[in-house]
Amino acid sequence: MSASSALELAELNKSAWNQLYASTPDLIWGRDPIGFLPRLLPGAAALPEGPVLDAAAGEGRNLPVLLALGRAVTASDASPAALEKIPPGLRTRVTTLVCDLARAPLPDARFALILLSDVVETLPEPEIVLAELRRLLVPGGCLLANIPLHDDGVAGLNMQPADGGGWLYRGRYYYRFYTQGEAEALFRAAGLELAASDDCTWDEPPHPHFRTAAHRHHSRVLLGRRPA
Q1: Which sign, positive or negative, has the C-alpha torsion 117, 128, 140, 183?
Q2: Domains of the chain listed by start with CATH number
Q3: pLDDT tens-digit readout, 83-136
Q4: Which residues pair with 208 in a beta bridge?
Q5: Which of 19, 55, 129, 218 is the most exposed place for a label (fewest CB within 10 A)?
Q6: Is 12 exposed, middle or buried (0-12, 13-18, 19+ CB in 10 A)?
């Protein structure tokens, strides 16, 4: 995929997600945290000092689990409509930031932990975002992310091949699925030490205005650490 076509696809993709969030007052992803998070999130004692970033936080489904770490939490998303839908009881407890993860307006070495939940598969150029998130980690800080595999329960469903690779769900939302080796290579290429790589499945209910049927996800969940 050329740089210009990847940039155009990324801009169209961001617009599609923002329009989805703005299209309904419903919480599209619900209130429960993503299925792997309660089991695989590092405890506060395992992290260096510093705050937490929920990168592409959406409507905030994962914020209660992150706040339980007892750290300051920032929720960022490229969609202002998504951040506006974070329930008020949570929104007042976090800092919100509208930003593109490929160009985060934040200083180097700020966060002890970054969560990237259900995001990598939606990025036409994940390498750029992962390198940017590494920049934001303090030495010894961790990036926790899931990367859906080729046999994920939604892979290929209502999807058409996208120019240059990947898929378009319902003609609008970019997706790409990975092998374990490809997923782990993305982290290493970003300069992250692979602290853990787990095979995870979990069930999700239907998502209003987005996916009408219950489905099962299958991801590689990676914990990468910025070298101290």
Answers
A1: positive
A2: 3-225 (3.40.50.150)
A3: 999 999 999 999 999 999 999 999 999 999 999 999 999 999 999 999 999 999
A4: none
A5: 19
A6: middle
The one-letter amino acid code at 98 reads: V
In sequence order, what DSSP letters do the residues of the chain get, joined into one string?
A: --HHHHHHHHHHHHHHHHHHHHT-SS-TT-SSPPTTHHHHSPPGGGS-SS-EEEET-TT-TTHHHHHTTTS-EEEEES-HHHHHTS-HHHHTTSEEEE--GGG--S-SS-EEEEEE-S-GGG-S-HHHHHHHHHHHEEEEEEEEEEEEBTT-TTTTTTEEEPTTSSEEETTTEEE--B-HHHHHHHHHHTT-EEEEEEEEEEEE--BTTTB-S-EEEEEEEEEEE---
Amino acid identity at 42: P
Tokens of 130: 């992962």
Number of residues in the chain? 228
Calculate the CA 10 to chain-centre distance: 15
Q: Measure the CA–CA gap between 73 and 55, rounded to whole angstroms.
A: 10
The one-letter amino acid code at 199 reads D
Beta bridge partners of 159: 169
Instruction: Report the predicted TM-score, pTM, of the whole model to 2 decimal places.
Output: 0.96
Q: Cα(37)–Cα(65) distance, rounded to whole angstroms?
A: 8
Residue 52's DSSP bridge partners are 73, 113
